[in-house]
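Go through this:
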Amino acid sequence: MFLTIALLCLVTFMAGLIDSIAGGGGLLRLPALLVAGVSPQEALGTNKFTGSIGTGAALLNFARKGLIPWRLALVGIPCALIGSAVGSRCILAFDSETAGKILIAMLPVAAIITLIPRRSKPSKESFSARDIHVLTPLICFAVGFYDGFFGPGTGTFFIIGFNVCLRMNLIQASALTKAFNMASNVGGLVVFLFHGDVLFLYAIPMTVADVLGNLVGSQLAIRTGPAIVRRFLILSLV
């Protein structure tokens, strides 16, 4: 048991470091929990618990540096929360065996999408009403639903969405993503907690490791700039 927890913490530290920079940390945490013998629903719930607090640590780091456009964040957070809660309710409608098959089938799909090469678009300084009131809510609800239903790769998909659709630079997109990723994690977590699907024996030590990884990774992103985000977008699944 101690060895299992130690290995999960090691994987989670790396997941938190990657997640804080480019997203995709759940692609390490979730399979690790499944390999440890945790049921699919408990793996999702435990991953949500760990991700919620870990992402919060990275969010604070980015917020202190003034990198989060709060006008967009305040519009998108409720959409991410609602989307994640709806997605979590949907996955809990399946029995454990079916949910397990769905998770295993979706992992390689998320991996392939995350690894598709992409270039950073030229960034813009201001955002239109369409960006704020149409594109941001749509991205947040859609990716939030995915996060509640499955999860791994959510941060990466948020970054891609804001980089491509709103032409944010990668550092700003990564910072904003932390607000929405935390919201979607919390939305899903509430549902999993209500159903008793969080395994606290693993969740608490993994959360400590995830917070440490997120703090290290977000500080690295702030100091290094967009280049490190591009590299970690690829590393998140390799």
In short: The longest helix spans residues 40-64. Residues 2-235 form one domain.
